[in-house]
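Below is one such record:
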Amino acid sequence: GAMAQAVSLGILRQDLTDKGQVMATDVVPEILEAAQREGLQTAGSSVALVDWADVVVMAVKPQVVDPVIADIAAHWRPDKLMISICAGVTIDAYLQGLGAESKVVRVMPNTPCLVGEAATAYAGSPRCADWELDLVHGMFASVGNATHRVPEYLLNTVTGLSGSGPAYVYMMIQALSDAGVHGGLPRAAAQSLAAQTVVGAARMVQETGQHPAVLKEAVTSPAGTTIAGVRTLERAGFASALIEAAEAARARSEELSRTPDFLLQKPKGG
């Protein structure tokens, strides 16, 4: 999929490996053709890829993971490393299918990895060596500036924050853009200004290292325009709404981790 392509190209851009050391497989011919155009090797099946690779990145829909594991299990060796970017699929699900001694790293990136701006968290199974976790860290740091190792139980919180977070930010950009249009700006100018405002504010947080509250105060003059807007946001419950959104997404991720394919289960007896 697109996220796996982004990670592969990020690794190559950072010279972490060369094209001859990266192989892809997919059931969609167009994706294999795209990989070949990038100079990557391709395989006709998951089994062929597993036989070839020391490190395998699983990037499929959650409901497809079990069939793929069943397909490759007989070819899996404990010295291989499985990296999963499949939402809601636990490390234990892989250990049950590939063997308790398997090395598995569960990773939660987000869609901005497609433009090299990912926020990523990861957790490893007990047998993963430090150098293998460092390898995973480097892979995902190649497509973003926020890469963190956390206990697996916190990956649901990561899902609510940075996994789902881009959607919340897009909504904010859209709302700011609408406000600009309401005030008389052309849509293109309003959207450009809104998006750059978010980019610039985020970089201020990253590059200054200051708390967002301190940066907010620097913009908020006494009796000025910004405090008038801040007052309105506070009255509307802006901060609380974002916290509740992230918490709802975290709870949903936890639920889906227990029953990841419930949407595809057919009712019995019908």
In short: The two ends are 34 Å apart (CA to CA). Residues 168 and 242 are 8 Å apart (CA to CA). Strands lie at 23-24, 41-42, 55-58, 81-84, 103-108, 119-124, 146-149.
